[in-house]
Each structure stands twice: as structure tokens, then as C-alpha cells.
Amino acid sequence: MSFDVLQDKIRAMKNPTVAGLDARIEYVPEHIRRAAFEEHGVGLKGAAEAIYQFNAGLIDALCDVVPAVKPQSAYYENLGWQGMEMLERTIRYAKSKGLFVIADIKRGDIGSTAAAYAEGWLSGASIEGQQFKSFDADCVTLNGYMGSDSINPFLKAAKEEDKCVFVLVKTSNPGSGELQDIVAGDRLVYQVMGDLNERIAAGTEGKYGYTMAGAVTGATYPSDIRALRKRLEHTFFLVPGYGAQGGTADDVRYAFDKYGHGAIVNSSRGIMCAWQKTGGDGHDFQEAARNAAIAMRDDIKQFVTIV
Ligand SMILES: O=c1ccn([C@@H]2O[C@H](COP(=O)(O)O)[C@@H](O)[C@H]2O)c(=O)[nH]1
């Protein structure tokens, strides 16, 4: 049960946070960009290579501070196959450094197509009776608003591989309420989504009591996080929106259970782009990212004690 593995790592490091790897080429320090463009040309290949070098440097700097990383697929897809190759390499490198990898892919489609996505991201493709893995993430994010048949193929793959998923429930963006906060009978739409998600994964609880289907609950809606924590006792939370989107440690505290378990808080730009605030030229990007990750950990630890 993969949330057990993640929770064990969080406890060992006393750090319930995940560093996002959402690298745009503008976030990569000049010296890394220049070297990659000289070797591979100014274009998709050069940019993808620069981003991989940046990611590898961040992973080296962060792997003994944070338990997990969350590469966001969009920032690799925008560079075509060259970007996706670097995403696969980034995942492999992060795993080799002991990090738990959450691939933020937000997929959701009819069952047959969802099964193909699940092979790509979790279980591997079956070719002539053999299993070939590609992205091989530990966990993925899903958009389950198409219904349980869009989630189930991922749960099947996750069960076979001892992995897990996070399903969007209450997202951090300003427009999330347009649909998710609509009243549906005696519940709100996001509560319906959360209940459905907990129900379809019932029976997969691990040693910490959490099923293999976690939920995304944005840091920017703290009262909803608090209500969801009470409502979804068996659902592990991924909480994005800390830092760059305005979420604070005080806002995310209620995502955790009474043992300080059951949630992990993401920051992407706040860690990756920390070097842009030091006044340096980017050569200090590793130190800056590490300091930002440590500051985030200590900020949250003021409110959350992990048993
Ligand atoms: O509701 C959601 C779901 C996912 N995200 C993702 O998290 C990171 C946030 O990045 P920051 O730079 O820390 O703001 C990004 O990958 C989003 O796609 C989210 O923000 N909200």
C-alpha cells in the first residue's frame, strides 16, 4: 500500500511536504541554460536538456530534506517528446535517490482509455506477453469528475503495483467553486466527489488507515480542508497551493489527522524559483531551493506534530 510507504518516509524525515518539479525554461538559471543550448541548440531539445539538468540539481539538493517530488506533466508536454523523455528521466533519477514520485497528470477518460493511461504511468504496457514500464511513477493525480469508471483502471494498476492515486476533489484555483461548490441535494459537488472517491477505494486501507485513492484539496480553501478531513477519514490528502498561490501553514494544518498523518503539502515555484530571490546569478539554486524547502518544513511543523 503506497500511502504507507509515503507516510513512512514523511515520518522518517519529519517532513510532510513535496517539492514540485514544474520547470519552465525561464526558471532555469542562465549558466545551465547556456550550456544546454550550446550543446543541443536553442530549441525543444536544448530546453528539455536544460530542464533535466536543473531537475537533477534540485533532486540532489532536496533528496535528504523532502520525502517526495511532484513533476507536473504540463511542463514537459509543452516540449513535445523531448520534454516527455526528460520527464521519464527525471522520475527515474528521483526514484534512484529514494524519493517518492507523484506524477501530476490529472488524467480522466472513459475506462478503456483510462486503462491505457494507467499502463503508461503506473503498471507498464504489455507487449507480446511482457510488461514494459515507461514513466513508472509511484502515484498519479486524476480528474475523476467523469465518474468511477475513469478512476477504476488506475486503482487496478495501483493495486497490482502497490502504488496509489490522488483524485481532484476541491482544487486550489480561483474558479474551483464554479462547479465544485454547487449544491447537489444535501451535499456540495466536491463533497459528492470526495465521498465517491473514498467509497470506490474502500477495503484498500493500509496500516495508517488510508485507502489507495487520495484526494487533492487546495490550501487556498482552508475551511473546506477542515470539513473534508472530518468527512473523509480514510482519504490521504495532497494539498497544493501553499506559497505561490497564497496558502499558509495555518491554512493547511487541518489536512492532518490527530497523529499528524494523512496529508502532504506541495510547493513548486516557492522551492524551484527560490534562487531568483537571493540576488545571485543562479549558481546558488541548489542552496536556495534547499533553504526554501527547510523553511517550509519548519513553518508547517509549528502547527503539525508528526507522531
Ligand atoms: O488544485 C490543484 C491541483 C494541482 N495543482 C498543481 O500544484 C502545483 C502548484 O504549484 P505552485 O507553484 O506551488 O503554485 C502545480 O503543479 C499545479 O498544477 C494546484 O496548484 N492546484
UniProtKB/TrEMBL annotation:
GO terms for biological process: 'de novo' pyrimidine nucleobase biosynthetic process; 'de novo' UMP biosynthetic process. The keyword Cell membrane does not apply. Pfam families: OMPdecase (PF00215). The active site is at 106 (proton donor). Pathway: Pyrimidine metabolism; UMP biosynthesis via de novo pathway; UMP from orotate: step 2/2. It is an enzyme of class 4 (lyase). GO terms for molecular function: orotidine-5'-phosphate decarboxylase activity. Belongs to the OMP decarboxylase family. Type 2 subfamily. This is Orotidine 5'-phosphate decarboxylase. The lineage of its organism: Bacteria, Bacillati, Bacillota, Clostridia, Eubacteriales.
